[in-house]
Design goal:
This protein is mainly α and 138 residues long. It has helices spanning 2-33, 40-76, 82-110, 117-132, and strands spanning 36-37, 113-114.
């Protein structure tokens, strides 16, 4: 039973790491290719990026909160030994650190320059939805 829990925990944390790396790559790619939102195609790419991040976050956010509880409960029920606790906690901590690092890229994407006021309003709407809702509304 302990092995199954441990493998499930590692699988969830691997998925979380892949989501974080994927989102970071999306942010980096977008910022490298579009320094300013100046045409409808740029805005479409911005919306596509926001949608991808929103959907992958729906998977990643629960993992961030579930993993520590699984680790502690399994340790408390003596399914895990101390080394399992350290390994599971370390992998989770690496994920949290990477999330913190890509938050800076995400903030830069939210504040990407625009060519005009109308584009700025549209960007601000997308960012508002991105930050406050679970699903895109465009």
């Amino acid at each position: 039973m302990a092995d199954i829990i441990l493998y499930a925990l590692w699988a969830m944390q691997t998925v979380l790491l892949l989501i974080v790396i994927y989102q970071g790559a999306l942010f980096h790619s977008f910022l490298s290719s579009i320094p300013i939102l100046s045409c409808p195609q740029d805005m479409d790419q911005f919306k596509s990026l926001a949608s991808a991040v929103m959907y992958t976050s729906l998977v990643g956010i629960p993992i961030v909160f579930i993993c520590p509880f699984i680790i502690l409960i399994a340790f408390k029920l003596e399914y895990f030994q101390l080394m399992d606790l350290v390994q599971g906690g370390a992998l989770w901590l690496v994920s949290i650190i990477l999330i913190g690092l890509i938050k800076g890229l995400e903030a830069r994407v939210w504040q990407v320059a625009t060519a005009d006021e109308e584009t700025a309003r549209e960007r601000d709407h997308v960012v508002h939805v991105w930050r406050h809702k679970a699903f895109p509304d465009w």
